[in-house]
Each structure stands twice: as structure tokens, then as C-alpha cells.
Amino acid sequence: MKFFPNIFAMAALSAGLSAVPMFNAEAADPAPLDAPVTLTVGYQKVGHLAPLELVQQYLDPLNVKLEMAEFARYADTRTALIAGSLDIATVGPADLPIALSQGSDSVVGIMGVGSSAKYPIVRNGVELSSWEDLEGKKIGIAPGSAVWFQFAATLIEAGVPYDSFESVNIQGGGAAFDQALQRGDVDAIITWEPFESIPVLEGYGHFATDLDYSKSESVGAELGMMVASKDALETKRDAVVRFVWAYLKAQQELSDDPEAFAEAYAELTGLDLDLAKEASKAITLGSVVTPEQAARQAKAFADLGVIQEDVSGDIPDHFDETIVEEAKSY
After folding, report:
1. What confidence score (pLDDT) does residue 146 get?
2. Residues 163, 7: Cα–Cα separation, whole Å
3. Residue 141 pairs with which residues in a beta bridge?
4. Closest by alpha carbon to 40, among 236, 292, 179?
5. Which SUPFAM superfamilies match (predicted)?
6. Helix crossing, 258-269 with 273-280: angle to 10°?
7. Which of 33, 45, 120, 275 registers the highest number of CB atoms within 10 A of its CB?
8. Domains of the chain
9. Residue-wise pLDDT tens digits, 252-298
């Protein structure tokens, strides 16, 4: 296995991302709840959610128990939350406006979870040094995924016609993207960690570092969002606040200790620890999404017809920043 230790640090630096304190380590712990409360949490095995590995240990003394439900896709997690099967879910930034546009009034945004620079992963022997180089290439995508929204928004703002290249829809999880790239079925892939790092570390692909698609005004660099059901916020608000407190505490702990971040990354994803160490270098834990940016994304993709209805005006009523404020107040 080949290692390119600098490229992952470059990813964070080139995106203008840096770790910032998210949590006051000197703050007092919240008081335990009077009676035990269980929260059902839908999640995915992705590196930027590594803090989930630490959360339950902080919640045990507070009378909050988590029932974790793994999902392969953000979209499936969103559906489960809307159906009432979950109290809290990790989804993509676009899932909030998608839910609203589909008529659901039950999803409330709480905060983002992490950010990174985003580059197409290019098959060795192919070079992409400008957006114009996409012309005629075969690009593997997952339409409707969080990274696809980032990529598509960047192309729009850069004035690159979406039909200037051949988009190849790839079904299944991230491993299918890497397999398509390795076989030569596509020239580049738009995917997510750890499947971005694997082709680089295994020597059959490279980052197109001149094509950062994390900087669009309408979508930005956010990798995922924490959302809750309206019912959970009404009936289990104190438990939800304590969950967010524990998550922020875990985020800060892992941000301060790269080795611990890599170990939690490997534990959550099942990835080899050496690969997790490299992949985690590209990720900055902590929220960068705002209600204003979520509203811009809602409008941009409604204008394109990707989201059924322009719900940008509804975002402020479905993004509750007071949960994080309360969690940080202890």
C-alpha cells in the first residue's frame, strides 16, 4: 500500500478549513435526567461521524440510552425519520429541503458534523486540471447524493455544462465506485470517504486537486447534518440536548487527538487503521452549514427542478439552532 501523507492535509488546507473549538472542556456536565430516556439514532458508517463511537459513554451517567440503527444511504435514513422510526438522524445537507419539498413537516435541522475539500478521484493515466477537462470524460456519480449536490452546484456556478461529460450512474455503496474506477469503466468518480482515499492509497487513482467542488456558494463544504424529528424535540428535548452535548464533547476530543480520531474512524467504519489514519486527515470535525446556506441550496436546486418545490423560505422554521446553544451552555 502506498502512502501520500501530504495530500490529505492539503485537502483541508486548500479548502480553508481549520479546527476550531466546538466545546468548552472546562464546562460542567449536564444533570442526569430524572428517568431513563431512549433515543433512536439513524447513522451511516462514514468517517466524519466517528464521534458517535464515544457518545454513549458520556450519556450513560445522564440517563440517556441510544438505540443505533445503521443505514447505507442518507436518503433511507431521512425516510425512516419521516416515518417516525427515528428520533435523530444523520443525513446530507440537501435532505432537509428535500423532506420539506415532499410535504414532510417533521424534520428539524440541528447542526452540521464536518467538512473537507472535495476532489474528483481520477483514474491513473487521465488528467483533470481544469473544469473544461471534464469534456468527453466518463464520470461516475450517485445522483441525489450529498456529494452529487456539491459537484452539481459547483459546475453550475463555474458555468460548466452538465452534458459536457458522460455521467455514469453507479448503484450500490462506495465500493462500487472504486471498482468501476479500477476496472477503467469510468475516468473519474464523485464519491465520499473512505472511498476517495482507497484508490489513492492503493495506487490506481489520484485526487484532481485543481477541481475542488466543496466551495460552491449554494452547497459548500458540509459533509453531513444532524437532524431530529419534531416529535422528539417536543417530547424528548432534554435528552436530545444531552445527546448533542455528548456529540460536541466527542467531536472536540477527536479534533484534539488525531490518533484517537483515526482509531474511532476505523472502529466505526471497519476500515484498516492505517487507511483510517490517512483518510481522517482530510476531515475537519465541526459544523459549517448554516440555515442561510441550507436555504440557498433549497432555492438553487428547486430552480433546476431537482427539488420538487422551492422551500427556501421554510428553512428557518425547520432549523433549530437553540439545541446547540443549549448544549454549549452547561
Report:
1. 87
2. 30
3. 169
4. 236
5. Periplasmic binding protein-like II
6. 120
7. 120
8. 37-114+222-329 (3.40.190.10), 121-207 (3.40.190.10)
9. 999 999 999 999 999 999 989 998 998 899 899 999 999 998 999 89
